[in-house]
């Protein structure tokens, strides 16, 4: 048994870049900064270290990230680490580590991850959070879903809510 899982909360270092593969599937890339701080034992000064992570997303999650995330916005990312080898300009072989995200949650205020207009899908509260996940692969050996059960009592109709923004796909 093994596990390859990463959970990060950080700020985007640049606007997401969305491209499309020949198959039509969307791919989104951006950098994410995570920081930690502590007091230096010798000097007593506050020290901060920032790590930069290369984030990749695919499919509908990539399209959503490209539409709603912006540089400086705070986001929670969940996914896995994937390594890739490349040759640098000096001819040295290097290894880069990317995070392939399969879940995203936008954090912070609406201005962190929004367009300049108010049709961006964020509510008007000081804190907003929207979560998106890539579809899970279906298991071939899974049993078929059971038949729907009839309800014995009628369900009261729901009252429409006026402040729901229909632009957010979830």
UniProtKB/TrEMBL annotation:
Keywords noted in UniProt: DNA damage, DNA recombination, DNA repair, DNA replication, DNA-binding
InterPro entries according to UniProt: NA-bd_OB-fold, Primosome_PriB/ssb, ssDNA-bd
Key word DNA damage present: yes
Motif Important for interaction with partner proteins: where in chain: 165-170
Bilayer-crossing regions: none
Family annotation (Gene3D superfamilies): Nucleic acid-binding proteins
GO cellular component: nucleoid
Subunit structure: Homotetramer.
Reported function: Plays an important role in DNA replication, recombination and repair. Binds to ssDNA and to an array of partner proteins to recruit them to their sites of action during DNA metabolism.
Protein name in the entry: Single-stranded DNA-binding protein
Organism the protein comes from: Simonsiella muelleri ATCC 29453
């Amino acid at each position: 048994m093994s596990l390859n899982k990463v959970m990060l909360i950080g700020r985007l270092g640049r606007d997401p870049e969305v491209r499309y593969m020949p198959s039509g599937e969307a791919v989104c890339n951006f950098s994410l900064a995570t920081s930690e701080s502590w007091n230096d034992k010798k000097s007593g000064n506050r020290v901060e270290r920032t790590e930069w992570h290369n984030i990749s997303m695919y499919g509908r999650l990539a399209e959503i990230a490209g539409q709603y995330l912006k540089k400086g916005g705070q986001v929670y990312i969940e996914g896995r680490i994937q390594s890739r080898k490349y040759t640098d300009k000096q001819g040295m072989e290097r290894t880069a580590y990317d995070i392939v995200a399969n879940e995203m949650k936008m954090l912070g205020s609406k201005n962190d991850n929004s367009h300049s207009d108010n049709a961006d899908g964020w509510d008007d509260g000081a804190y907003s959070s929207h979560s998106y996940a890539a579809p899970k692969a279906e298991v071939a050996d899974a049993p078929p879903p059971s038949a729907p059960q009839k309800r014995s009592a009628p369900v009261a109709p729901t009252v429409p809510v006026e402040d729901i923004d229909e632009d957010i796909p979830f």
